[in-house]
Amino acid sequence: MPQLVPAVVPAGRLGRSDQPALAVSAGLFLRPWELEDAPFVYEAYQDPAIQHWTRRRADCEIETRGWIARWRQGWRAETDAHWAVVRAHDGALIGWVALCSLDLAVGRADCRYWILPSVRGQGVAPAAVATLASWALDTVGLHRIEIAHPTANEAACRVALKSGFVPESTRRSAQLHADGWHDVHVHVCVQEGADDLVEEVPPDRTLGRVQRRLHRRGKDRLRDRIPGRQGRQDR
């Protein structure tokens, strides 16, 4: 049956090429996962916060090796794309960032992320998320990327804001975690027209391409919507 609307991103744009490494500011880069990274993933998933907000745990390195194999397969299948967040000067793995639920036909994906406790609060997650979003929008050609996090996960909210994602809505009782059902904040980054761009260009060039998509009215809405947002430092 012929489609009335052409695909936003043609099938094969990802899967027919190798997954790239992406340079990030502040001495970081993103690279595809390797099976040999399984011990790191296993150790990371022992962190209580990662377990809680990702709703899973790892019982052994064999299990995480299977996860990585599926992450790599997701690139070829064009269903998702996962990267390791790496420190450039020593090659240390410090986090994970991904585009999940990829739908190239409509040009959308969900962005998810976690970083190790030892580097939280240092701007690692916002830099990684902003770099990935810029690549997905500008290079791949996606139209819309969403970040959906439980309202109780304030750190994830700070990352979304600092990465340049506009607050859009709240989904009531939308995610189930170990402590029950959570309302979820939705942030988005979309291809926008010139009239919607923020006037000031942020000084950090890595974050700037995504942050320029922020609406002033979006930031103002979030400050009104989330108690305690004013005066708090983004992570």
Write up this protein.
The protein has 235 residues and is an alpha+beta fold. The chain has seven helices and eight strands, in the order ββαααβββαβαββαα. Strand 7 and strand 8 (180-190) form a beta hairpin. Helix 1 (38-44) packs across helix 3 and helix 4 (124-140) packs across helix 5 (154-162). The longest helix is centred in the first third of the chain and has 17 residues, at 61-77. It is globular.
Brief account:
With about 240 residues, the chain is α+β, with helices and mostly antiparallel strands. It has seven helices and eight strands.
Which terms summarize this structure?
8 strands; eight-stranded mixed sheet; alpha+beta; 235 residues; disordered C terminus
List strands and helices in order, with pairings.
Blueprint: E1 22-24, E2 28-32, H1 38-44, H2 48-54, H3 61-77, E3 81-87, E4 93-103, E5 108-115, H4 124-140, E6 144-150, H5 154-162, E7 166-177, E8 180-190, H6 205-211, H7 216-225
Parallel strand pairs: 5-6
Antiparallel strand pairs: 1-2, 2-3, 3-4, 4-5, 6-8, 7-8
Helix pairs in contact: 1-3, 4-5, 4-6
| Strand neighbour order, sheet with most strands | 1-2-3-4-5-6-8-7
- Measured distance between first and last alpha carbons: 48 Å
Strand content: 25-35%
Low-confidence stretches: 193-209, 211-235
